[in-house]
Amino acid sequence: MFSLCLCLNVFGQMYHDGLIYNGDVKLCEYNGDETAASGGIGFYQRFISRVRGSRCAMFPSCSNYGLMLFKNKPFVEAMVMTADRMIRCGHDGRFYDLTYEYGYPTLVDAPPFVKLPRSIIYKPKSFVTVGNIVPKNSSDSIVGFINKLINNHNYETALLEIERLEYFKPQLFDASLYCKKMLCYDGLDREEEGIFAYSMPGDSTFKEDIKVKLQVAKMYYEIGNYKEAIKMLEKCNDIDSLSIYKIKLYKSMSFLRLGDEEAAYHNMNEACRFIGDDMLRRNNLQVLQDLGVKKKKSPLMAGLMSIIPGAGYLYDCQPANALTSFLINGLLAYATYTSIKNKNYGIAGLTGVFSLTFYVGNITGAVNGAKRYNSRRISDSATMLERINNLY
Fold it and tell me: Whole-model pTM?
């Protein structure tokens, strides 16, 4: 009975299985011409998942995750990776990003070969531009209206007004409005469009403005192109203490995201020289100091410790995964042992296959868990710096 229940859980977990289109995300559906394992998952999706009515805690769901694996990987590798996912499902959520693709919060965990769009990851964003001005002429009234739209997060309308002004009244269009144009692209999560617009020929005078360059560097940072963000920041001229602070701050966070902790600390130390707020200065440096105390995990050590099921996950600071791995591997090993003892070799073969699969999955999962820990170690520190400095 335990083996049967385990098989059903391996073949999927959630109501929202099947073919799902959310933006650019396309998940898998069994179409009748895949492997036997895919057929088992397809049977689960069509006839069992809806009856259970349960929700998988991860995106994609375990059954969709399994379908992707069996469609793209050799059978044995797909079995091991699916077993690893089943051990980790819903546990130790601090190591994963959050998404609302299913309409409720789930943890993002796609197979390594699947590239999910950045837009599905939940990240609150807020902007504040210059304060509303007291209009003294028609030009001030237009700029004040645009400022109000941006401050109210009506970026689409603000962008339309800026482009209308750029086309019909080019004599009123200046570097400040061009910077607000880039900010609107940022606020709309259309950073790629903003960078493309910046890269087009024309408006060379506006593109040399320090605020424009900083905004473009910020957009490079937000789309994960940290090397280009650093290149853009190196083109910025140091005109005042505030601009120097922002340049050094974004360089520090970009280097941090790239894993260069030494360069990150150096640039943050430089940035803090231009911060008037003593508490902000201390908090920034404390984040990087805490990062240095939190040592990296060795994937090799995690794999070696996983000889004892769950020990590798425990080394990775994932206690829930460790307990799940220990229990599943222990129960499967016991089921195999008792079946052999009772000369029930058919069941022993079934449970033995699953026992070996989950055991190997426990090892590979711990190795990947160490890599996930190291990645999250950097990501959490960078996110903390973003919050401390009100960068969204």
Answer: 0.75
pLDDT tens-digit map of 294-320: 899 999 999 999 999 999 999 999 999
- Please spell the DSSP secondary structure of 253-294, one letter per residue: HHHHHTT-HHHHHHHHHHHHTT---HHHHHHHHHHHHHHHHS
How far is Cα 352 from Cα 282, in angstroms, rounded to an integer?
56
What interhelical angle do 138-151 and 175-187 show, nearest 10? Answer: 20
pLDDT band of residue 132 (cuts 50, 70, 90) is low
- Nearest CA among 160, 119, 117, 120 for reference residue 142: 160
Q: 70-93: per-residue pLDDT in tens?
A: 888 898 999 999 999 999 998 888
Q: Which two tokens mark 8? A: 């059903």
**pLDDT over threshold 60, residue 167:** yes
Rounded-to-5 percentages of helix, strand, coil across the chain: 65, 5, 30
DSSP class of residue 94 equals: G
Exposure b/e, 139-162, CB count within 10 A at least 16 = b = eeebbbebbebbeeebbeebbebb
Residue 208, amino acid: E
Give the Cα separation of 192 and 282 in Å (integer).
Answer: 34
- Looking up tokens 């007291």 gives 134
Give me the torsion for CA of 24, 62, 309, 80, rounded to 10°: -80
What rounded mean pLDDT belongs to the chain? 82
> Residues 6 or more apart from 273 whose CB is under 8 A from it?
none
Nearest to 165 by CA among 155, 173, 157: 173
Binning pLDDT at 50, 70 and 90, where does residue 103 land? confident
